[in-house]
Amino acid sequence: MRTGRIISEEPVKPYMWLNYVGIPKHAMELRMHRVLESCPFKTATSYVVGYAFGGALGLLTAGLDPAIVGEPGKAATISTRQALREMLDRGKSLAKNFALIGAMFAGTECLLESYRGKSGMSNSVAAGCITGGAIGLRAGVTAAVAGCGGFAAFSVAIDYFFRYR
């Protein structure tokens, strides 16, 4: 890295673009930053990405595991229309599920982060537990506890992988 001194004995900055942090930001840039870091934006983004991922996964699994079965002893023959209908139905179903789970997790994590004022693994663990518990609660308390533990453990694994790998 080059350094030097000019006539006035002030140090010369090697590359001005490296000092971007100290430059004051424009009002529009600050506004966009606030929007992109807001909880509604993060929740909506997770919903859209979850919907797209779930839809793609649904189309893939429907193609690999057709649920249309024929009568016992006869070969199941399905038309292209039936296969496409099944693929679309499964894609929509998984898309809605992934979108809901993604939005619940991202919204909960963002709210916890905003409330606590800290960003760390404990927020994602708590958000995973709350999301898993809420999803499992429809099947009973035991399922809610299992969902809480499962989602929290998965959140720890993912967070650890992305932060410390």
Describe the secondary structure blueprint for this structure.
Layout: H1 27-36, H2 39-64, H3 80-116, H4 121-136, H5 141-164
Helix pairs in contact: 2-3, 3-4, 4-5
Q: Which keywords apply here?
A:
extended; mainly alpha; 5 helices; 68% helix; 165 residues
Distance between the termini: 29 Å
What would the average pLDDT be, to the nearest integer? 83
| Total of DSSP H or I helical runs spanning 4+ residues | 5
Rg over C-alpha atoms, rounded to the nearest angstrom:
25 Å
What share of the residues does DSSP label as strand, in percent?
under 5%
Largest sheet: none
Number of strands: 0
Spans with pLDDT under 50 lasting ≥5 residues? none
List the secondary-structure elements in sequence, H or E.
HHHHH
**What structural category do the secondary elements indicate?**
mainly alpha
Helix content: 55-70%
Quick rundown:
This protein has 165 residues and is mainly alpha-helical.
Protein architecture, described:
This protein is an all-alpha fold and 165 residues long. The chain contains 5 helices and no strands. The chain has helices at residues 27-36, 39-64, 80-116, 121-136, 141-164. Helix 2 (39-64) packs antiparallel against helix 3 (80-116), helix 3 (80-116) crosses helix 4 (121-136) and helix 4 (121-136) packs antiparallel against helix 5 (141-164). The longest helix has 37 residues, at 80-116. The radius of gyration is 25 Å and the shape is extended.
